[in-house]
Amino acid sequence: MKNLIINVAVAVLSLSLMNTAQAQIKFKDYPVKVYKGKKATLEIPRVDNATVVNPSVDFAGLYHVEGIGCGTACMNILFYGVRTGKMYNLSDYFGIDPFVECKDGSSGDVAYRPNSRLLVVKGGDYEKSGYYDRPVKCEARFFIEKNGKLIRIK
Fold first, then answer.
1. Torsion sign over Cα 69, 71, 75, 79
2. Which domain holds residue 71?
3. Is 66:48 a contact under the CB 8 Å cutoff?
4. What's the Cα-to-Cα distance from 42 to each of 49, 92, 104, 118, rounded to whole Å?
5. How many domains does the chain divide into?
6. Burial of 120 per CB tally in 10 Å (0-12, 13-18, 19+)
7. Secondary structure (H, E, C), 46-86
8. Residue 40, SS3?
9. For residues 131 and 134, what is the distance between their CA atoms, to the nearest angstrom?
């Protein structure tokens, strides 16, 4: 019973700290104008070789976002320039896996807005934990997009 109380207290404190960090960094603090001009047709490298005509602008005013499977329990997030169709694998910058089950019972996540350069990644690292079949400790990381790259700010 004592362990249960301690675990609940740690989970509540972790969520509180993550929410505090997220409350300090807001999407509206990194505004960007959303591109409204002519858009490129995107070739998405999936099993069905999908083509996206007139892609939506999902992130940083210029990017369309696609999740692409890369095997069992594997996913890449790809960013496409809507003007050029150029693919950017910005998920290489994350340093953590957003497709995890977190110890607090939540799941990893990637949050972004069309009109903001801010990208928030919540995730963990199965390799550091040594376990691939158990929840991992998750953290939030904050990035801003600059010239096709992500720069970590927190």
1. negative
2. 2-152
3. no
4. 10, 20, 37, 23
5. 1
6. buried
7. CCCCCEECCCCCCECCCEEEEEEECCCCCEEEEEEECCCCC
8. coil
9. 6
Q: Which residue has 């994350």 as its token pair? A: 94
Q: What element of type H or E holds 13?
A: helix 2-24
Q: How far apart are CA 140 and CA 138, in angstroms?
A: 7
Q: pLDDT below 70 — which residues of the chain?
A: 1-23, 46-49, 72-74, 126, 128-133
Q: Please tell me the pTM assigned to this model.
A: 0.75
CA 32 vs. chain centroid, Å, equals: 18
Instruction: State how far the alpha carbon of 136 is from the alpha carbons of 3, 17, 72, 133, in Å.
Output: 18, 17, 18, 9
Question: Do residues 52 and 41 lie in contact, with contact meaning Cβ atoms separated by under 8 Å?
Answer: yes
Which residues have CB under 8 Å from 67's CB, separation 6+? Answer: 75, 76, 77, 78
Q: What are the angstrom distances between the C-alpha of 66 and each of 8, 21, 63, 153?
A: 36, 27, 10, 23
Q: What is the C-alpha separation between 45 and 60, in angstroms, rounded?
A: 22
Distance CA 49, CA 136 (A): 33
- Report pLDDT for 66: 87
